[in-house]
From TrEMBL:
The lineage of its organism: Bacteria, Bacillati, Actinomycetota, Actinomycetes, Mycobacteriales. Gene3D superfamilies: FAD/NAD(P)-binding domain. This is Baeyer-Villiger monooxygenase. Transmembrane segments: none annotated. It comes from Gordonia jinhuaensis. InterPro entries: FAD-bind_Monooxygenase_sf, FAD/NAD-bd_sf. It comes from the Bacteria. Keywords: Monooxygenase, Oxidoreductase. GO terms for molecular function: monooxygenase activity. SUPFAM superfamilies: FAD/NAD(P)-binding domain. Coiled coil: none annotated.
Length: 492
C-alpha cells in the first residue's frame, strides 16, 4: 500500500495542471495515476485522421506556460499532445506520475478519514482525492441491434485502429459531431465509398485557420507581452458569443448566415443542401468549425444517409426503410459518456453511495463544479456545470486550480482534517444556475444534446461569461463547508 497526501486521477490538461500548481505552492506529497502511457488525456487518446482543436492555440494552452512555437492558429492533435508532454517535462511532473495504472475504485473511509484507491498496480490511500478524469474519456458506443455481430472492422473514433488500412474500402461513419466532421474530410479521398449516417445536421462555421508566419513567431518569442495580448484578444472575442448562448439566442443570427453560406460555397446539389442544413438554433448543440467538411460531403464517393439505422448485419447497415448498405468498416463517432460516465460508479463517498447513485437520485450537481456533498476531501476537475460551448476549457481548469490551491492552503493553515460542502449551499448554487439557463439556447434552441442528462436538465455547461466563474473561484469559501479539525495532541 502506498500512502500519499493527495492523489490525482488523470494526466490530461486538468491533472497535469493540478500537479504543477500543487508543486508551485509547496504541496509536494502527491501522485498522478493514469491508465495511459504518457500525458495528454483526450489529446493522447484521440489520434483519428484530422484530429484538431476548435479553440485557437494561444487560448487552448496554460496561461503560465505559453508556447511561442505553435505552428498554426488552430493546433492539431499531435502538436497539442507534444505541448502537454513538454510542459510536464519542464515542471518535472513525470517522476510523480504512475502511468499504466488503471484505477478500479476510490472509496472514502470515515474511520481513517482517507480515500482508499484500488488500482491494478496495488492500493493507494490519500487524504485528498482530485478527480481529473475529464468528461471525454469514456467512448459512447451506440445501442444498435446487431452491431456486435458485424463481420468487418469496427472502432470508435477515440480508439482509432491505425493498423487497418481504409484505402479503397467501403466505410460507414456513424455520427456528425465534432470528431466526425474532422474524420470525414480526413478519409474521404482515401476510401472507395463513404456512407455518413447523420441523425441531426450540425452547425458548421468557417474555420479561420492558417499557419503562423516567421515574423509572428519572432514576435511571440521576442516582444514582451505580445503573445499574452493575443490571448486576451482571442478570449475577449469569444466571450461575446457567451452572451448570445445564455441570454439572447437571437443575437447569434449571424452564425446562421455564416453556416448557410459555408454550405452554399461547397454544395451545389439542392437535396444534399437540405439534408445538411440544421433545423435548430446555433449553439443548442456544439457549434463546429471546418472548411473541409462540406466539400467532403459533396464528393461523388460520399453519401449522406439521414434515414435512421434499424440494425447492423454481418456485412452492412440496414436503415429503417429496409435498405442495406454493405460496408467493410464502421467508424463510430458517437461521442462520450458525459452525464453517465462509468467512472461515477467507482467513486464512493459517505454511506457507501457512489457518484452515480447520488446523481441518479438528486441530479448531476456539484458546488462550483468542484465539490460534491457526501464526498469529503474530494475535488472534481471539469465537474458539472463547467463545460463550454464557446471558448477554452483550459481557462475553466485554471479557474478551478485557483480554488483548489486556496482550499489546500486554508486546510493547512487552519488544521482542517475534512471538508464537505453543505447540501443546502450546493442546492442553492445549482438552483441559481438553472435559473440563469432558462432563456439559454441549450433550453430554447430546439434540440437534444449531450449537454442534457437523461431527464432533460442542462447539467454540463456553465451559463454566461467565464470571467464570472473565475471570480467566484478566486478564494476558497470555508463557510460553505462542514469542516472537522485535526485533534490536538494531549501531552501526558
Amino acid at each position: 500500500m502506498t500512502d500519499v497526501t493527495i492523489a490525482i486521477i488523470g494526466a490530461g490538461f486538468s491533472g497535469l495542471g493540478a500537479a504543477i500548481k500543487l508543486q508551485q505552492n509547496g504541496f509536494e506529497d502527491f501522485v498522478i495515476l493514469d491508465r495511459g502511457s504518457d500525458f495528454g488525456g483526450t489529446w493522447r487518446d484521440n489520434t483519428y485522421p484530422g484530429a484538431a482543436c476548435d479553440v485557437p492555440s494561444h487560448l487552448y494552452s496554460y496561461s503560465f506556460a505559453p508556447n511561442p512555437n505553435w505552428s498554426r492558429s488552430f493546433s492539431q492533435q499531435p502538436e497539442i499532445h507534444q505541448y502537454i508532454n513538454d510542459v510536464a517535462e519542464t515542471y518535472d511532473i513525470r517522476s510523480r506520475t504512475r502511468f499504466g495504472v488503471e484505477v478500479r475504485d476510490a472509496r472514502w473511509d470515515d474511520t481513517s478519514q482517507r480515500w482508499t484507491i484500488d488500482t491494478d498496480a496495488g492500493e493507494y490511500t490519500a487524504k485528498y482525492l482530485v478527480g481529473a478524469v475529464g468528461p471525454l474519456c469514456e467512448p459512447n458506443l451506440p445501442d444498435i441491434k446487431g452491431i456486435n455481430e458485424f463481420g468487418g472492422e469496427i472502432f470508435h473514433s477515440a480508439r482509432w485502429n491505425h493498423d487497418y488500412d481504409l484505402t479503397g474500402k467501403r466505410v460507414a461513419v456513424i455520427g456528425t459531431g465534432a470528431s466526425a466532421i474532422q474524420i470525414i474530410p480526413g478519409i474521404a479521398d482515401k476510401v472507395g465509398h463513404l456512407d455518413v449516417y447523420q441523425r441531426t445536421a450540425p452547425w458548421v462555421l468557417p474555420r479561420a485557420d492558417r499557419p503562423y508566419t516567421g515574423l509572428e513567431h519572432w514576435a511571440f518569442k521576442n516582444i514582451p507581452g505580445y503573445q499574452k495580448l493575443c490571448r486576451l484578444g482571442i478570449y475577449s472575442a469569444h466571450e461575446l458569443v457567451s452572451f448570445g448562448l445564455t441570454y439572447a439566442p437571437d443575437v447569434l443570427k449571424p452564425a446562421v448566415r455564416a453556416g448557410k453560406a459555408n454550405i452554399a460555397r461547397a454544395i451545389s446539389d439542392r437535396t444534399l443542401r437540405e439534408k445538411v442544413t440544421p433545423t435548430f438554433k446555433p449553439g443548442c448543440k456544439r457549434i463546429l468549425l471546418s472548411n473541409l467538411y462540406y466539400p467532403a460531403l459533396a464528393q461523388d464517393n460520399v453519401e449522406v444517409v439521414t434515414d435512421g439505422i434499424s440494425h447492423v448485419t454481418e456485412t452492412g447497415i440496414v436503415t429503417v426503410d429496409g435498405e442495406e448498405r454493405e460496408v467493410d468498416a464502421i467508424v463510430v463517432a458517437t461521442g462520450f459518456h458525459v452525464t453517465d460516465s462509468p467512472t461515477f460508479e467507482h467513486i464512493v463517498g459517505r454511506g457507501g453511495r457512489s457518484l452515480a447513485e447520488t446523481w441518479q437520485s438528486a441530479g448531476m450537481k456539484a458546488y462550483k463544479g468542484s465539490t460534491v456533498h457526501g464526498f469529503p476531501n474530494m475535488f472534481l476537475m471539469i465537474g458539472p456545470a463547467t463545460g463550454l460551448g464557446h471558448t477554452s476549457m483550459v481557462y475553466m481548469i485554471e479557474s478551478q486550480l485557483n480554488y483548489l490551491v486556496d482550499e489546500l492552503k486554508k486546510i493547512r493553515s487552519q488544521s482542517i482534517s475534512t471538508i464537505d460542502v453543505k447540501a443546502d449551499v450546493q442546492d442553492s448554487y445549482n438552483a441559481s444556475i438553472q435559473k440563469t439557463l432558462r432563456r439559454s439556447v441549450w433550453i430554447a434552441g430546439g434540440c437534444s444534446s449531450w449537454y442534457k442528462d437523461a431527464d432533460g436538465n442542462v447539467t454540463t455547461v456553465w451559463p454566461g461569461f467565464t470571467f464570472r466563474f473565475r471570480n467566484s473561484l478566486r478564494t476558497f469559501d470555508t463557510d460553505a463547508y462542514t469542516i472537522t479539525r485535526e485533534r490536538e495532541e494531549i501531552s501526558a
